[in-house]
Design brief:
The complex is a heterodimer of chains A (267) and B (177). In chain A, helix 2 crosses helix 7. By secondary structure, chain A is α+β, with helices and mostly antiparallel strands. Chain A contains 7 helices and 12 strands. The longest helix of chain A has 20 residues. In chain B, 27% of the residues are buried. With 177 residues, chain B is mainly alpha-helical. Chain B contains 5 helices and 2 strands; from the N terminus they run H-H-H-H-E-E-H. Chain B starts with 8 loop residues before the first helix and ends in an 8-residue tail after the last helix. Classes of the chains: A alpha+beta (267), B mainly alpha (177). At the A-B interface, helix 1, helix 2, strand 1, strand 2 and helix 5 of A face helix 1, helix 2, helix 3, helix 4 and strand 1 of B. Strand 2 of chain A pairs parallel with strand 1 of chain B.
């Protein structure tokens, strides 16, 4: 390799040190999708959207420190509010009409019925879920996010195994009314735990079909999908989005689809 | 499954030397796995519309499993260089747009008064991984974009040299025999 190649790499890696991190490029792609959705919601006058640190303080325009923090490495749950502002940041949105609040999370682990943990790249959950966890010492939420998006930034075409893995994860995370007999630690059972059981939006569904229908689930790829991967999608209500790159019409379509779904669902 | 061409080894080595193991592994895996033909946008749009309608037990027309195609060995070196440049370009652009988005999301609503002071800083992206902290702001991204252009030129120049060497090492039909 020539010294010119090394010098160019030094310039790039000296500027974006995150490219030396194993999860760097992947997290950057997730941030792109996360902020794209949040900005789309903010453009709608019905939503108020803001950034929060892990201790629930808002990141204000006038703050002297305005870090938006993502966590790489081994995935974790939600950290306690008392552990301070230096854990993963998140985005909050509030529906001005019904006052419901939601949080957009990146790279958080969720616990399934099996007891296994599953990282969801991008999740939208009720504000009460995050609030309860942060104020009770932190932990891993149980159940399925209302919006789950798997982000794939690799350039190679997505194969069927990638889709199978996502579907399997969502199924393990699904809590249905019929599961209350063996999910005895959660009473009353909610679709995601912890969450406010008095809000009907947190009631568990009766069937997988119902739960698939009333949640938004998508795979966002920088490249495309193979036919094998596509064959698994619509039956399980998984929306495949390809060519998700900066300023493409496909990216705009994904962000709009999430916003439209939030509006239609009363989120 | 495709055979990995040893001509890409200098590229793999420089990635490893610069702690970009993730990209080295990704390249090798991608070449080894082969390439799945992608579904076109119209088919994908149809799939999404069916999923959105959410009819019970509706199956799709696309049922073929997809067979990976091997990458041709003689294209691997150029493909590898293009992959690296595409990957870095995409990542830098995504981060640039994300920081712009964060600024916009963090901005107060129209009509709300902002009191700026001299200590105000632009949004910064921080990645925490295994006790290490990686920080980047918009200013560093400009520098990275300049570095990317230099890398593009340097890699293409190196590639031309490599392929020139390969041609020089290959006996011409007139000299053979």
């Amino acid at each position: 390799m020539t010294p010119q190649v090394q010098a160019a790499l030094d310039k790039i890696l000296g500027s974006i040190t995150a490219l030396r991190a194993a999860s760097g490029a992947g997290r950057i792609f997730e941030l792109f999708v996360m902020t794209g959705i949040a900005l789309e919601l903010k453009k709608n006058p019905n939503y108020e959207v803001w950034l929060e640190r892990s201790d629930e303080t808002r990141i204000a325009t006038t703050d002297s420190v305005r870090d938006f923090i993502q966590r790489g490495g081994a995935p974790t749950g939600i950290k306690s509010k008392t552990s301070g502002p230096d854990n993963a940041s998140f985005i909050v949105f509030r529906n001005r009409t019904n006052s419901k609040e939601w949080e957009i999370w990146n790279g958080i682990q969720f616990c399934g019925r099996s007891g296994g943990s599953h990282e969801i790249d991008l999740a939208i959950v009720p504000r009460s879920t995050g609030g309860i966890l942060r104020n009770t010492g932190g932990g891993i939420p149980i159940g399925r996010p209302r919006v789950s998006i798997e982000c794939k930034d690799v350039i190679n075409t997505g194969a069927a195994d990638e889709m199978r893995a996502f579907i399997a994860r969502l199924y393990d995370l699904t809590l249905l009314t019929g599961h209350s007999s063996h999910m005895t630690g959660i009473s009353p059972l909610t679709a995601i735990h912890p969450a406010n059981p008095a809000d009907p939006i947190n009631d568990p569904a009766h069937s997988y079909y119902d739960e698939n229908k009333r949640t938004f689930n998508a795979v966002a790829r920088q490249s495309g999908f193979s036919a094998g991967a596509c064959a698994l999608t619509s039956y399980y209500h998984i929306l495949p989005y390809q060519n998700i790159k900066a300023s493409t019409t496909n990216s705009a379509a994904l962000f709009k689809a999430v916003k439209d779904w939030c509006i239609t669902s009363g989120y | 499954m495709a055979k990995i061409d040893s001509s890409i080894l200098p590229i793999i080595k420089i990635l490893l030397d610069n702690s970009m193991d993730w990209l080295a592994v990704e390249l090798i895996e991608t070449i080894h796995q082969g390439y799945f033909p992608a579904v076109n946008e119209d088919s994908l749009d149809k799939v999404r519309r069916i999923a959105m309608k959410q009819e019970r037990s509706q199956q799709q027309e696309i049922v073929e499993s997809g067979i990976p195609q091997p990458k041709e060995d003689d294209n691997q070196l150029r493909w590898t260089v293009e992959y690296i440049l595409d990957r870095l370009t995409f990542t830098i652009e995504s981060l640039k747009l994300s920081l712009d988005n964060l600024e916009e999301i963090g901005r107060p609503r129209d009509g709300e008064v902002i009191r700026y002071d001299s200590s105000q800083r632009p949004m910064t992206h921080v990645l925490l991984e295994n006790d290490k902290t990686y920080v980047v702001s918009a200013r560093e991204l400009e520098e990275a974009s300049r570095g990317l252009q230099i890398l593009r030129d340097a890699l293409n120049s190196w590639l031309d040299d490599q392929q020139g060497d390969i041609q020089n090492d290959t006996p011409s039909p007139s000299s053979a025999g």
